Amino acid sequence: MTQDTDIRKKTLFEIRLEVLEEIRAKGINPFGYKFERTCLIADCLEPYEEGKDVRLAGRITACRDMGKTHFWDIHDSSGKIQLFLNPKALNEKDYELLKYLNAGDIIGIHGTLFKTKTGETSVRTQDLTLLSKSLHPMPEKYHGLKDVEARFRHRYLDLIANHEVKTLFLKRSKIIQTLRSILDKDGFLEVETPMLHPLCGGAVAKPFSTHHNSLSMDLYLRIAPELYLKKLLVGGMEKVYELNRNFRNEGLSRFHNPEFTMLEIYSAYDNYLDMMNLCEKLIQTCASSIRVDEEAALPSGNKINIFKPFKRITLFESVKTLSGFVLETPTDLKKIAENEQFENWQTMPDGIILNELFERHVQEKLIEPTFVTDYPSILCPLAKTKPDNPELTERFELFIDGQEIANAYSELNNPLEQKLRLEEQLKNLPPEEMGKKEIDHDFIFALEHAMPPAGGLGIGIDRLAMILTGAASIREVILFPLLRPEELSGA
Q1: Of the candidates 314, 339, 313, which has an alpha carbon nearest to the alpha carbon of residue 326?
Q2: What is the pLDDT of residues 107-155, one digit of tens each?
């Protein structure tokens, strides 16, 4: 067997391990220590300064060899620059190191800026330091990692190979910074509440359960922080918000991930109309901060102007005008439910029928930002009822591109009514959930000490990021979305 045949049978990983040992044999550490940079790559490009002495570090992303002269590209977090590597400028030891380096390796360099004959800003490299040797080739030589499953599973490769992915997450970060900035300026206090709950409350969802060994205590990952934040209103914190992680043991889809980010806001002495104005302000300011076009493309392919005033419509009117059914009065609901073959339609409350019709036939049609208001009280045990109609609540949900983006109430602060409505909610649980949930009596006890009237608002950050960036799936805007397990291969 020839040596060449033997080499061809080896994996790239094995070959690079051998190269690693060759580098070590030359007294070079292939996984270096701290490297002092004088600037980022972007600072070399603008403003450009001929002959400027620079120390840069980054990942090799392209290697173009022309005899003894090499033109390599390196990337850092700010951008890309070309290196000019020639034995006349580079010392002998570092020039010898070049043959052991590949695209994907991370290096530090020292040199001076100049422009090539084609006008490209480059670094005439004098010294080179290997900072981290990559043991695997980069995906498609930086032409892009295309396989969707691989992109989400190996997000680090996705970020390396696809520049637009990094840009998307920079926009997501800017959205969160903008939300914080507005709320802080408006006098809100950012707080942190528990992620481990003894009871799962604040929303209707299936929780993840766990167990604390020392306390011999069953706990749940939170499905919502709402009850804890309201307790802070009782304690005198009048304007609070939390950018929180929530966990719901439910399905996956383009719009659902079991772990997701929410912004929850509570403001004493306000109501749902104040939250409506705040919601519109937050979203439009976020859109401005990442320079969303006036005619912005949505995940569905539709286009909207996010900067126009958001539409407002009641739940009943939305079903009446957009569902395609003849609905003159609520008494028509039973007939429609029968025709739609709703299970148990004879005993189904009108409010449940109305919401079901909305979800089946109306929601997907709400492309432009639309506040849907006046939800039936049977659906909203934590919201105040309308003064002129106790069958309806002071609540809205915001829909954009057919997806719920935000939810808000005038918060119920009557402890006696709150307890009754939570008890009624427990009675209406499906049979499989009976006995698994209970009332948070400490929350009721807190309300009994007087909570001021307040408005509360929740915004889904992942879905908002989808809308504002035009991402097609929620997994596109979550750095490490939950995926089915896969055995690692290779090393």
Answers
A1: 339
A2: 999 999 999 999 999 999 999 999 999 999 887 644 456 677 788 888 9
Main-chain phi, psi angles of 114, to 5 degrees: -155, 170
* Interatomic CA distance for residues 3 and 8, integer angstroms: 9
Q: How is residue 168 written in tokens?
A: 């998307």
Cα–Cα nearest to 226, from 247, 245, 202: 202
Q: What is the CA radius of gyration of the chain?
A: 29
User: pLDDT per residue over 301-329, tens digit each?
Assistant: 899 999 999 999 999 999 999 999 988 87
d(CA 126, CA 48): 19
Query: SS3 for the chain, per residue?
Result: CCHHHHHHHCCHHHHHHHHHHHHHHCCCCCCCCCCCCCCCHHHHHCCCCCCCEEEEEEEEEEEEEECCEEEEEEEECCEEEEEEECCCCCCHHHHHHHHHCCCCCEEEEEEEEEECCCCCEEEEEEEEEEEECCCCCCHHHHCCCCCHHHHHHCHHHHHHHCHHHHHHHHHHHHHHHHHHHHHHHCCCEECCCCCEECCCCCCCCCCCEEEECCCCEEEEECCCCHHHHHHHHHCCCCEEEEEEEEECCCCCECCECCEEEEEEEEEECCCHHHHHHHHHHHHHHHHHHCCCCCCEECCCCCEECCCCCCEEEEHHHHHHHHCCCCCCCCCHHHHHHHHCCCCCCCCCCHHHHHHHHHHHHCHHHCCCCEEEECCEHHHCCCECEECCEEEEECEEEEEECCEEEEEEEEECCCHHHHHHHHHHHHHCCCHHHCCCCCCCHHHHHHHCCCCCCEEEEEEEHHHHHHHHHCCCCHHHCCCCCCCCCCCCCCC
Q: Cα separations (Å) of 20 from 123, 374, 422?
A: 26, 67, 64
Residue 436 pLDDT: 57
